[in-house]
Design brief:
By secondary structure, this protein is mostly beta strands. It has 3 helices and 15 strands. It has a 15-stranded mixed beta sheet with strand order 8-7-6-5-4-3-2-1-15-14-13-12-11-10-9.
Length: about 260
Amino acid sequence: MVKNSLFRILTIVLLLGSMIVPVKVSAIDLPDEDLNYMIMYKWGLVNKDAASAVLSLRSDGNHYYASLAARTLPWADKIFMVRDTLKSTMLRQGCLPEVYKKISHEGSRYGKDVVRYERDGNQVTGYAQRWKSKNGGPVSMSDTVLHATGRTVDMLSVFYYLRTLDFDAMSPGETVKMDVFSGRSVEQLAVRYDGIETIKIGKNKWRTYRLSFTFTQNGKVSSDAMETWISTDAARIPVQLEGQLPLGKVRAYFTGSPSTI
């Protein structure tokens, strides 16, 4: 069974049946915001907060500018330090990405991916550049050209697109499909709407839309399924996400409350 990386789960925060369902997009204008998350690691008897993340959005007349910054807490730094940042420049209309950047420091590894999107009708091309190094060694660089047809997102813009969908017009089990460009490959993402669920985070109860994510590549599952919960209120906050790691699982949860939104 293929497992998720910690990085992938953080980006799915904080991150579509055999037919594409025609989904209505709501006329939601996303606000400038800073959303704070805690990432809890669970393995056997271990159940401890291990990292924090901030999901931010700014806008101007034509674009959204999103960023996700995640870092392990001091105790976890001693085991495996993570400092990851994602950035996405999106068209305000439809949350379509134009430029995606991923900068990662994970243990002794450094990486940077930049993907620039071009669209010609229904055809999407991603011009991807990747830099990486290990143990402080030399930085290597590579180029890749990615191709897809139809809606194509990155690992950050996907969450803003999902927040604009009209889930109230959907039935549980309906699925939305799209392609995702990473720094090196094209994956197919299926997001299934599983209905409305009330969940409790700390002392707060949230009424949420529950979604399940499945990633495939060349027809094969490329990571375990993940689940996320988006608030049903006007803010459409991604309030929780759960996924598997090679050892244990991780849960990212929103640290705000309904009254502070």
